Every structure is written in C-alpha cells, then in structure tokens.
From TrEMBL, chains A, B:
InterPro entries: ArsR-like_HTH (IPR011991), HTH_ArsR_DNA-bd_dom (IPR001845), HTH_Metal-responsive_Reg (IPR052543), WH-like_DNA-bd_sf (IPR036388), WH_DNA-bd_sf (IPR036390). GO terms for molecular function: cadmium ion sensor activity; DNA binding; DNA-binding transcription factor activity; lead ion binding. Pfam families: HTH_20. Residues 1-94 form the HTH arsR-type domain. This is Transcriptional regulator. GO terms for biological process: response to cadmium ion; response to lead ion. PANTHER family: TRANSCRIPTIONAL REGULATOR-RELATED (PTHR39168), TRANSCRIPTIONAL REGULATORY PROTEIN (PTHR39168:SF1).
Length: 228, 228
DNA sequence: TTCATAGTTCGATCGTAACCGAAGCATCGC
DNA sequence: GCGATGCTTCGGTTACGATCGAACTATGAA
C-alpha cells in the first residue's frame, strides 16, 4: 500500500499498446522522429505527440530537436534493459503479439538490442567467447580475461578505451528469442560497431534486424566457432 | 509494431495502482488471501476478485484454495524478479509513492524480497561474504567458493542439499532502497530461513520488513562484519 | 438444517484516457 | 517574404475498465 516505489506509473506507461510499440521500436537504438513513431504505433501524429510527452515526463524518453525534427531515444540504458527484460518475461509466458512460429527469421538470427548484437548470432558470439577462454562466466556475470583482451586487440578493439567509460565492460543480457544470454555492455557495443564498420553487416531501415553479408557471415562464423 | 513479444499486456497488468499494490505485497513472499489483498489494494473484495482473476489469467499469480480461503502467490520467481526490477527502476527515477525521506526506516534496514533478505542488512551480508572470500563476484554474477561452502556448513547450511534444486544457488538481486546488490537464489533463501529459525529475526504481520532481535542483531553483525 | 464467512459473478455507473480533426507554432527551402 | 513540412495544443467524442452494490456459490461451524 504505502511502502516502496511506485511501480504502477511506469507499468501504466508501458501498458498502452501504442506506447509499448514505440518503446520497442526505440530499443533498436536509433533515434526516431515523432512521425516515424506514430507509424510504428499505428496512430496519428497528434496522438503520438501526447504519448511521447507522457513518456518523456515519465523519464523513459529524451528528445533532441534538430531542425524541424524531434528525435526521440530511450532515456538511458536502464530503460532499454527494462524493456528487454519485460520482453523476455512476456515471451516466456507466451504473450506473443501474433502467435508463435519462426516469426521474422531474420530477427531471430541477428538483431540489435539497444546497441549490441542479439539473437542467434549474439548468443553464439558469447558462447564462443566463453568457450575460448576470452570471457569468464560466473553465475550470470561476465568478466573479460587477459587472453580475451589480447584476442580483441587482434581484431581491432582496444579494451583500454572502453574501460574509461563508467559503463560496465561486460554485461549479460537475456534474449527473448533464444532465452539465453548474449553480451551487452560497452564491449558488446564495440563488437557490433566493428562488424558494421568492417562492412560485415548492416542495419536495416525499419526493423531491428541486422543483415550479414555473405562475406561477413563467413568471417563471423570463423571468428566465433562453436564446437560440435 | 509486429515484432517481438507483447509488453503492453503485462505493463497494463502492473499499471493499475490496485494491482501494483497487490503484487508488491506478494513480493513479501507469503501467500495472501483475496480479502487481505483487497485491503492492501484499498478496494473492495469484489473489485479485488476481478483484479486477481486478471493477474492469474496473465500468468503473474497462482492460487491455491484451502478450505474456504484462496491463497494467492506470485506465479514464480521470475515474476518476483520482474517486480523488484521495476521497483529498482522506479526508485531510480524518483517515482516514489509518497515522497522521499528515510521512509519506513525498518524497511530500509531489513526486509524480505520474495524469499531472501534485502535492504541494508542484505547488502551488508553479501558485501561481507565477498570480502571474506566466501563468494566470488565477477561482473554482476556470483559464485560460491569452496571456502564459502565450508563456512556455511559451520552455521548449519548444507550447500549440497541446495544444489539439488534446479534453481540457481547464487543470484544477485538489485535493491531499490540501497541501489546495490544483495544475495538471492536458493542460498539467499536458506540464509534468511536460518536466521528466522534461529530466532535472530522474525517477519512482521503486515509489512515486508524483517525485525531483528537485539541478540540476533548482535550475532548478525558479528557474523557478517564489514571492514572499516 | 441453519447461519456465518470467503469469494465470485452480474449489472450499472462513472471517470479517465486514448483518439482524431482542426487550428496553431516553429523551422526549413525557396 | 511565401508555402511546405514537422510537430504540438485544443476541444470534443468515444470506449474501455475500474469500481461497487447486490445477488449467488462454496465451505465451514453450530
């Protein structure tokens, strides 16, 4: 009754389908304009505007105006984690939006989760890093090993730079499609960035899925093998 | 729009103040009757009944009828984690139910979080276990060491028994009042149970707070010291 | 059997919030 | 300056859901 923080407010914010859709879309990590968000929410811009104002007042979103556009993003990583964790929970209970099935196979294979790689490929990458001794997994926590730091340098990722940020280097994030952990944190972000930079993969316009090129696919599978 | 699980449903379930209050109360871990839950929700039994039916249909609650009572509990630990994580999130944004202040000091000192100890004492216990080398912390994951297993046996906790359950032994759980981790999982549960069994502490009737006796307080602080 | 307690179902009321059309600002391109 | 585009604010409609009184079912006690 009177004890503790107020869950109901944020629950209600997420509880509206239009808002939930917008938040889910923003989990894709890229900033979206009010009009785009109205599209994903299936509502008019006027309605979207009031929704966005509420979400911002609730601290879930921030906006950045740029010219005559307003770009909305999730307020911070904590929001992204909350949304993803709710997705995981919902998926586990069968609260799927439109029934099961290998829906959107591209999305299950590889997609972006705020700023890092998720889906089948995300899970595979973490599994492989653990198997090769680059990352230590204890319970549900992750830590980079010295070997891992060396290996990463070989593929052009300087871990020292990443450590300077306040953000944790490794963090595990639960995947709603695979129901297994994948790598988040600044290292997860750096790895995905490097794949994009190398041209191995690219983001798609309207979806959260990540498309690997044939060559990128080959390189990725070679770099992150899984033993049979 | 069409991709992924449906967050809005569970958001809406949690989004109603009466339901949120009931869920928060059930985070206390003990089963409550419909009438009791109506009390904490501040509504009549009829209304509570429909709310409870919705929560059950949504997979958040289960009920067990016993005589003419119906006891409701959270469906499983995942629900408890979801609620606690939302509380942590809400607390971080200042979404407090009734303004700040050292509200309910007893609750901040020690309270139950589903089935384990949270609050100041919960955080202290985990800190101490890590400092003494009983638990390894890697990232945000926890693992019991051999030394820890021995130490626990000395205070009457047989870790072997706990391992048999499918539930993870150690798990870290984020505290909304302290904003730091405390120990959950079957070990967290076992530790709290042992404190209650020993008579060091007892649960209170209507609140989630845990009251330590003077003697229990002394023993607890001696058992889990923190270096200055 | 009858009465009391616990809970659900029904029906009706009421408030709130989602929604859109239209109008109002702001910014850009010209 | 002008019109076009992106977004917000206003006003009014509508629909859904939370709420409770009252009636109904189930269990237990006497």
């Amino acid at each position: 009754m009177k004890e503790g923080p107020d869950i109901a407010q944020i629950g209600a914010l997420i509880g509206d389908p239009a808002r939930a859709n917008m938040l889910a879309a923003l989990t894709g990590g890229r900033a979206l304009t009010a009009t785009e968000l109205a599209g994903v929410g299936g509502i008019t811009v006027q309605t979207a505007s009031t929704h966005l104002a509420k979400l911002e007042a609730g601290g879930l979103l921030t906006q950045r105006k740029q010219g005559r556009h307003r770009y909305f993003t999730l307020a911070d990583e904590a929001v992204a984690r909350l949304i993803e964790s709710m997705m995981g929970f919902a998926a586990g209970r069968g609260h799927l939006r439109h029934q099961p099935g290998p829906k959107e196979p591209a999305l299950r294979k590889a997609r972006i989760c705020y700023d890092h790689l998720a889906g089948d490929y995300g899970v595979r990458m973490l599994d492989s890093l653990i198997a090769s001794g680059s990352i230590d997994a204890v319970g549900d926590g992750l830590a980079l090993t010295e070997k891992g730091e060396g290996d990463l340098k070989c593929i052009g990722i300087n871990v020292g730079d990443l450590r300077s940020s306040r953000r944790p280097l490794c963090r595990s994030c639960l995947d709603w499609s695979e129901r297994r952990a994948h790598l988040a944190g600044s290292l997860g972000k750096a790895l995905l960035s490097s794949f994009l930079d190398k041209g191995w993969a690219r983001r798609t316009a309207e979806s959260r899925s990540i498309l690997f090129s044939p060559e990128g696919d080959r390189q990725f599978l070679k770099l992150f093998p899984v033993d049979p």
